[in-house]
Amino acid sequence: MRGPSTGDHFSLAEEALAQIQKLYAVEKAARPLSPEDRQQYRAQHAKPLWDTLQTWLAIHRPGVPPQSALGRALAYLANEWDKLVVYLTDGRIPIDNNADNAVNGISRVIPRHGLFRVTVQRCDFAADRGSMARPVAA
Predict the structure, then answer these.
(1) CA within 20 to 30 Å of 53's CA: 73, 79, 102, 127, which one?
(2) Domain span including residue 18
(3) For residue 83, is it within any domain?
(4) Below-50 pLDDT ranges, the chain
């Protein structure tokens, strides 16, 4: 049986990045709330997204060669999971303290051309905070 093709890896990277971008959309909506309300909002809206991402990671990580760029990014995501989700426990903690390398690693495996290009428009909701979802340079 043949392993996943490079195109499969790009699709997986885009899936992960899209899920993380949804987390930032939740965070943007929660920004004006008090820390207590922000924590409750995150529990209701962000926690299910993290749960989905964790399931996705468990399903797809075994099929990605660990030495590939995506494999290293997924290993980082798995190994740093507890640090990445700690913000869910306290509305005062920002989403992107510990997550920078996870998305940067995933976004680097997406080619800078064609349909897989990560654009500023797709990351604009996070850009105003200098967050982890930085676009790949063209």
Answers:
(1) 127
(2) 6-127
(3) yes
(4) 1-6, 98-102, 110-138
